[in-house]
Here is the input.
Amino acid sequence: MTENNLKGIVIFYTRTGKTRAIAEAISELYPYDLQEIIDLRDRSGLLGYISGVIDILFRPITEISPKELNLDSYNLLYIGAPIWGNRFPPAITTFFSTARFSGKKVVLFADFGSSMKDSIFAKHSKFISDRGGEVISTFKVKTRGKSIDAIKDETRQILRKNPVLDSIRIL
Ligand SMILES: Cc1cc2nc3c(=O)[nH]c(=O)nc-3n(C[C@H](O)[C@H](O)[C@H](O)COP(=O)(O)O)c2cc1C
Here is the structure.
């Protein structure tokens, strides 16, 4: 992959804005498009939190907007979401089930309050490689107690230190 034929997009889901901060930091550093995936189920407040906990276990597929994304013009996908109960949330799981990964390079990222298992990345990397894509890197950001600015700063530091991501960036 060269800088000339690389077209990237950052696809993310957020409930309270932290993952959006990470996605924005990526798209501010590199000239990639930004696409939020919206969960059409209301996840706000305590009831939204409770519905999230229940749905990751019993109803991991939800209604999302946009319903389908045309990724034909992209060959690099950054895909990220918060961790819910050591899983990706329904909105991004639903996106995974509809997306075409064939021929795409993918970077997975996640943010979490206190801890997450790297097996989440391994599981989704296999899902993507089974569909003809390739996960070239992953990264995670711990968000508890951090401001939006601190989360963005940390993301920039992670990206700059990552040799794979640094080598494919467009200057
Ligand atoms: C339903 C739900 C479940 C969560 N489960 C976990 C978890 O298992 N481990 C963890 O460290 N954080 C967990 N969190 C915290 C979020 O991953 C964390 O606050 C994240 O940075 C929020 O991102 P957002 O602002 O983009 O929604 C959970 C949050 C929610 C709403």
